[in-house]
histidine kinase (Enterobacillus tribolii), 456 residues
Amino acid sequence: MINSLTARIFAIFWLTLVLVLMVVLMLPKLDSRQMTALLDSERRQGVMLEQHVEAELAADPANDLLWWRRLFRAIDKWSPPGQRLILVTSEGRVIGAQRHEMQIVRNFIGQSDNADFPQKKKYGRSEMLGPFSIRDGEDNYQLYLVRPASSPQSDFINLLFDRPLLLLLVTMLISSPLLLWLAWSLAKPARKLKNAADDVAKGNLRQHPELESGPQEFLAAGASFNQMINALESMVTAQQRLISDISHELRTPLTRLQLATALLRRRHGEFNELTRIETESSRLDGMINDLLTLSRNQHKNDLERVILKADKLWADVLDNAKFEAEQMGKTLTVTKPAGSWALLGNPGALDSAFENIVRNALRYSHNQIAISFSNDNHGVLIHVDDDGPGVAPEDREHIFEPFYRTDEARDRESGGTGLGLAIVATVVSQHRGWVRAEDSPLGGMRLALWLPLQGH
């Protein structure tokens, strides 16, 4: 077994080349139209016909004017049923051959003219045997037998043997499935490595033992790949643990700060500095929650998925958003409601992603928010528009990154944590969808979100 990929490819190339050359060189030798020696029974039959024709010519007196007629009479009389005899004179005249077969008769006569070693050869559906020597006084003739060929070779096979380039082409076509199978088997480890890399790109950090097999080159690459997975998994685990530990450590002083704020309000009443401290504490608490959610979502690819209906999935989010918009003095309109389209996903994650988009629009809009749902037969497209300050085109790809801040008015005093849209992008990616920012007809920003329907 060749373990080196380089040696395997080299060996397969030369083996294939040698096999093709052998086929091209050896097949013509299998042509049934090759000149072959007579069987003993065929030789005995020829000798017997030779004797009968000689006796017939001896019994029929020669006539200088009609010499060829007696030759015809002799071969017609002694031709076996379904077969014909042909005589060739010493001058090369052919007696008894039909006009359409003169070419093949001449061909055979040129190849077999020794009566001591008679031979036979197939020509399509006919076969010629001979020669046998005929003595007629002072003249000598050569006797040939034409009979139907037993198991004649097909016309297509004859065409192949007659045209070497066509034979080479057919040989290459026949060998193509074998070569394709060999190429597929050689590329199989590469496909496994590619699929494993796609899994890692989706955030699925699991080892692939099947990669550590096959040729040495792929075996070494698979081992290195699994080592990389181990290292990445350790790094991600350490990062998650660090974020979790930091968040929990921050919760303790944050709780104390909130408790101190409450005691301070009870003793001294309400004042501006105290309100400011409470606002920042709430913002810090929200940031910690969002950071934990983002960390969990980024590395959680085994989400439990169920079949969901779009019109029911986000109904509560829309009802709550309409209520909050009224309290803020804004208008939230659903221009195109969702239909009962089937989605396959995690209800909690999808609900959270949609809520983040809607709350983003509520936070930054001046007066209006418009939401529409549509179905393109492959997925659900959601548009959330607002009439806020919008986002510059160069910042639109970056707003889905954690803690990214633009210089526009949209970020000033927003009260956001900078993690909401990052959570949206993570959830949508886990559901094989996409989300992007565009210009809104209302003058602000449009967030477009697409999710595939079940079975797509």
Notes: Residues 1-31+156-187 form one domain. The CA atoms of residues 122 and 316 lie 89 Å apart.
